[in-house]
Amino acid sequence: MIRVFLIATLAPVAALADCPPPPDHSEEISAILGRIQTVDREMDAQVLSNELWELWTDAPDEPAQELLNSGMRARGSYDFLRAMDAFDRLVEYCPDYAEGYNQRAFVSFLREDFAAALPDLERALELNPRHVAALSGKALTLMGLGRDAEAQAALRAALDLNPWLAERHLMTEPPGQEL
């Protein structure tokens, strides 16, 4: 029975070929970030943020998309072990796909394992420096680690891209002030 479970669990990753490059949504992301800077209402900014999420969660291929979706469903039902397994497999299969790292970091953050979340957020940002959610997640993670000055810098970088973030109330310095 255990052997069947292990084969069923590991077979999808073993059967995967090399992950293709992530889709290049840089132009669409730039356009959305430009529009988000000009909206006058939080509701309009939320619609644009949702469009960003659609792009960030567009995985490189169908197997990667299934791993991402499976991990997000598991996380949504607070099954963090199953979520981590899916995101571990996604990152192993698609090491150049930022959202795999971002989602794994989010699970670590929810588990209050800030030390595990931070390297995944940093990797996500290496791959996608304008990933607003990873930037705000990094700020929250640094706060959790008690590294407030670094957290404020990360939050400022996120707010420079999207001034409507819910986390904006966590800024302790007004815009333009040195941190």
TrEMBL record:
Signal peptide segment: 1-17
The keyword Signal is assigned to this record: yes
Keyword Coiled coil set for record: no
Alphabetical list of Pfam families matching this protein: TPR_19 (PF14559)
Per-repeat ranges for TPR: 98-131
Keywords recorded for this protein, A-Z: Repeat, Signal, TPR repeat
Entries under Gene3D superfamilies matching the protein: Tetratricopeptide repeat domain
SMART domains referenced in this protein's UniProt entry, alphabetically: TPR
Protein name as it appears in the record: Tetratricopeptide repeat-containing protein
